Amino acid sequence: MSNSITQSRSLFEQLYTHAPIGIAVASHVNGLWVQLNPAFCEMLGSTEEELLHTSVVHMIYEEDLRYEEFRRNFWEMTNGEQPMYETEVRLKRKNGTLLWATIRACIVRDEVSGEPLYLLVQAADITKQKEAEETLLNQRQQLEESSRISRILAESSMDLIAIHEADAERTFKYVSHASRKMLGYEPEEMIGRSGMFCIHQDDIPAVKAYIRRQMIGLTPERISYRLVHKDGSLVWADTLTHYVCDESGNLQEMVAVTRDITESKQQQLNLQEYKSLFDCNPLGVASLDLDGNLLKANVGQEQLTGHSKEELLSRPFDHLIDPVDLEKTRYHFEESVKGVAQRYEIGLIHKDGQRIETSVINVPILLEDKVVGVYGITSDVTAAKRYVEEIENLSYERALILNGMSEGVIGLDLDGNVNFANPAAAEMMNICPSEMNGKPLEKMMIQMQSEGIPYPTNGTPILRAVREGRALPRTESVFWRQDGSSFLAEFQLKPIMDQGKTRGAVLVFRDMTSVKEIIRAKEAAEHADRAKSEFLAIMSHELRTPLNGIMGMAHLLMETELNEEQQGFAEIMIDSGESLLYILNEILDFSKIEAGKMDLEQGPVDIRDMLGSVIELFSIKASEKNIELYSEISDHIPERVCGDETRIRQILINLVGNAVKFTEKGSVTIVAEMDSSQAYGPDQLMLSFKVKDTGIGIAFDKQHQLFQSFSQLDPAINRKFGGTGLGLAISKKLVELMGGAIGVQSEIGQGAEFQFTIMLDKWREEEMVSEEGEVAVTVELPERNRLARGIRILIAEDQAVNSHLLEEMLRKFGGVCDVVENGEQAIHLLATTPYDLIFMDIQMPVMDGIEATCEIRKMHPEIPVIAAITAFAGERDREACLQCGMQDFISKPFHSAEIIRVLNTWVPYIQSHRGNWND
Predict the structure, then answer these.
(1) In what helix (H) or strand (E) does residue 419 lie, and over which residues does it extend?
(2) b/e code 742-770 from CB counts within 10 Å (16+ = b)
(3) Fewer CB within 10 A of the end CB, N or C, for the chain?
(4) 179, 203 in Cβ contact below 8 A?
(5) What does pTM read for this prediction?
(6) pLDDT tens digits, residue range 357-376?
């Protein structure tokens, strides 16, 4: 098996290096070249060093650049909507000449996660083919009467040339002799039959669609699809079709030129398999020239030796080998250069100076029956050798260690009979240890082949190795027990030597079944977590976008002349929108906490001011219900502490809001105290808060449900008072993030008292002095209705409601706006109009806000100011917007206050930098 894999790697490396077509790898993120094979470099007349880190599109002749098409196909490949993109373009050589090439590109993905890794590009020089096709078609048009000459040309072509009738079935009218080699049919067998008969049934719809596009006058283009050979095998084909019409424009016949591209398709597959085997292999893999210099090395080789790739490459392997094993290593390498594969064990010297026991496989790289290099595959067997060395020198004390090992250990004589077994081995084999001694291993445990077929009697790899005195490296296999059950085991075998003679062998193995199950369970959990995060992000966007229109229009309505009843209706709309936004934010907060992505900020907190604002928030509601709402704050609490004021306030709002909601008469009291104990350290303090109410109370047997997610104590209570059931669960998580705890004491009808503690840092005096010493800078701002006067504003938003809402808000501030529906329109309009400020939506068709901003910043690094408007409200979304060149961020649903803030922040900046933009 390993020889087959090694030979495949060799073949893949040779295909890449010596392929007649260009093969290259580019970054799927920025489109820069990462690696190009010699054929690609020769095609462009440049060296690989000259091409590396240049853009893929720079090599394409300007007249053939179709940015929109390239971008659309790249997007579809990245999202898995199409496996490959193919086109024909002219490429620019270094000397200024042009050549025609077929470009095929595909996204190579991670085999486990499916995430894109890089862009794989193939290029084939088709200049001669294009010239031949053009010549052939010109001769066809100019010399229709000379069919004999055209037929001779067709018969001599390696491509299959066919002429089809203009009927619905595209019946074959003429077929060149290339059909024999390509499809196994004689031309006479195909003439008169439907043009679809030899096309793979899954590809017929795509071919028919291609013909329809041509029939309505689109530019001819190539199509790749599968044909079915007469013997049933598949043939990948590439076809260019020309349509012959009479003077009236009526279709007379179709001329199709088809090329067999099966080999290039297989080369592409082989290259992808080789890359996976080389790059993703956990073992150390390197390719060496005939002098022993390392030419390539994978990540496994770097991890094994501790050396970086730069330290490994273009140097002999001598510095990696323990000097005591250097002569042995050179001997086996020289044998590999002679064409004989080698397997041996040596010691490597890690970069930190430690010796590593390794097993090495050397495989010759053959090209045209000539050795051109050597593959080295190295695995770390240090732990395995330590096990075996201990077993070889087995004593009573070491036997005790073996009995405590989780791995199974079995001793075998030269006939394959068991002479000792540790308890772990007996347990895995489901046999009493006393029943194993002296019995053949095959009677108790049967080793299976990879196809699930048992090996012949006494023919298992383990027994053959025991008889021959050979070691077996660590590998996996399926074993069957006497009771008919099976398990996947990882095992290795080491001969037992006594005075130079083989006395038997030691088999060390462990059950890998549970490990595989754990890995699968972990992958399933990660997949579910990703799916949940994606769902929440989508739901946030889908809910915030219409909510923005509802709340924004309601706010605008409130600013118009309304009677008392109409104003009441508008206030209900705004209150309902705020409630829906609060629920949405609660769900997103809970998701962040569950995923461990909630980060606490550290800043100054004035506990007295914060409690005062919470009291003020609920004072109107408490007054309406005629209940008292007040706070008691200990004098020991400092004027300032250091913590996350937003999250502390969120906890208090949840608790006080519940207390006011469930209290019909009496009072709600908030108590804040400080634990003056020094047990928390000189720089920390513990604050405790209590929220007491005289409300309906909570039954003791229901209190354990309070802090559970989406939990409601009673459906009747939920119908009366509402709520998501997340507030207390979020509060509990936040309290625990701050190093505290939360609890409740309550009885039915006697009210409730919620208590929580949080650990905060003391506010350092130097921070206070620094903060107080800052000089406040104020800017004299114009009146509200003149905030945006004289500022040229562009709104890029695909939702008509949102763009109209924003336009109305800005109009009230004195602004005049233009509106576009996507990023591409914004770029085009910006080329003719010097805008000062752009409000840019993130999610738009054709071109999104991120991509549009990147393009704008290439030409205009500072002005216009770009403010993102998005329904994706996470911190990572904000960072992504700022990184691409946006200068501000507004989350939907937005209010006029947010628009005022943006104008107040950036209008002075725009006015001071406008001269640079006009230049």
Answers:
(1) strand 418-421
(2) bebebeeeebbbbbbbbbbeebeeeeeee
(3) C
(4) no
(5) 0.35
(6) 999 999 998 887 888 899 88
